[in-house]
Amino acid sequence: MPIFPLNIVFMGTPDFAAHCLNDILNSEHNVVGVVTAPDRQSGRGRKVSESAVKKLAILKGINIYQPEKLKSVEFHNVLKTWNADLFVVVAFRMLPEVVWAMPKKGTINLHASLLPQFRGAAPIQRAIMQGATESGATVFRLSNKIDTGNIICSTKVSIGPNENAGSLHERILEAGSHLLIDALNLISDGKDAEIPQDELIVGELFEAPKIFKEDRRINWSMNSSNVHNHIRGLSPYPSAFTTKSGNYNDPIKIIEGHPIKGNLKPGIVEVENDRIIVGTADGCYEITKLQPAGKSVMAAKSYVNGLREGIEKFD
């Protein structure tokens, strides 16, 4: 139990953040306000959707503010009235210094990697895409440059050889939410010894920038292990994709598969006994689960059974 419970403003938006907020609410610390993304219209009916964090805050009766602009004076004044000891950020926007420097104990962020590795917006996906065998979660203090502040604490999570981003996300979420409470208790008790990230740099640093559409396209000229890392790193969302040769406006999401032995040229497709096999730089890759445009995820066998014409090559 912390000696001095903290008054906290929590900033976050998606399910990942809501899970962490719930753990803080179940701790000895006090959440005096929540900052989350503005409501958005989505879907064909333009239905207004609220963030997972907002829904939880409403349920718990917590003050909520949804700023359009993080530099607005009105937003800053609201934060000042909440009089928090500490701001906690999980999966939110990049804050201006006038915000993160406001509370007397500063602002901390939970990041889904072992910093300083995989700084950026997509650490879970990028770690698997890079072929990393280990990831984790880190709590650090915000500073002027994104994801570079001093580390308060971290925890390691191994990455299985066939694990995808979805399962790793869940395990890092669980580990990270517990880590966040540990960090709050350390700060509350004045035991938060900080480690500069520069002291932890060993070997090459990998970045984790936001994933755009062309980042998701599969390059069949890579070796099989890299193709496998690319696919599982983007599964189940936003999903790696490929297209039939010459049909670039009809993407096929590749959800699951595995490397196999073979001697097809890169991108050449062989459909055999309800199996889909694609050539790579050093062998072949068997696709076991995929999602054609406009359809649900299906097993390779179901896709093959529905084919009206053969597939010669993926680009």
Structural account:
The structure is a single chain. The protein has 315 residues and is α/β, with parallel strands linked by helices. The protein has two domains: 194 residues, Rossmann fold (3-Layer(aba) Sandwich), CATH 3.40.50; 93 residues, Roll (Methionyl-tRNA Fmet Formyltransferase, Chain A, domain 2), CATH 3.10.25. It contains nine helices and 15 strands. It has a seven-stranded mixed sheet, with helices on both faces. Strands 10, 11, 12, 13, 14 and 15 form a six-stranded antiparallel sheet that branches. A hairpin with a 4-residue loop joins β3 and β4. α1 packs parallel to α2. The longest helix has 24 residues. The protein is elongated, with a radius of gyration of 22 Å. It starts with 6 loop residues before the first strand and ends in a 10-residue tail after the last helix.
Notable traits:
single chain, 315 residues, alpha/beta, Rossmann fold, Methionyl-tRNA Fmet Formyltransferase, Chain A, domain 2, 2 domains, 7-stranded mixed beta sheet, 6-stranded antiparallel beta sheet, 27% helix, elongated
